[in-house]
Amino acid sequence: MLRFPLILAVALALTVTACDSSTPEANQSAADPAPVAPASAPILSPATSTPIPIPATNMVTLSTVHGDIVIELDEKAAPKTVANFKKLVAEGFYNGTTFHRVIPNFMIQGGDPNSKGEDRSTHGRGGPGYTVPAEIGLKHTRGAVACARLSDEVNPSRASSGSQFFICVVDTPFLDNQYTVFGRVVEGMEVADKIVAQPRDRNDNPHERIEMTITFKE
What we know:
This protein is an alpha+beta fold. It is built from 4 helices and 12 strands.
């Protein structure tokens, strides 16, 4: 397989794969994303139609077999993105998804519902079926938490993936002004460092399933 230059290759790693136009992320119009519920609004469980409250806290704990990562969400810098992320956490959307792409000296990426399945060829292609408007501003420093997205060619507005995100394990200034950063790791970067060092396949998907559970931290 031919290798792209390093900066282009790592930037492409943060895109949601769009080779299959049947994927929800590929079909969703970046210019007309689905509405995102405000952080203070309750959501309804499809199974019970009972309200699921969304806590006011902007602290979440991402738990893995390698330990916990505590993330502080920046509601001021990225209100729509944070509202969507908190809605998905309240729904339990992320529980059982994996870190499906890890690149040493760069980042770890996860949040794809397809990664709950065993077909690794679909990992990185999924999402909740909508995008979130870009809220680009914060820098990609070590510990930054940012949204993955489709490439500029098909997504000129740089709208974010509805669920996929990545955590920078080093400063990556070449990504500044390109992706929405919506939070930062405040505890547990050593866990991210362990995850990024795991053996991986040719698509940078760890051989070991690294599942996550994300919960609110009061």
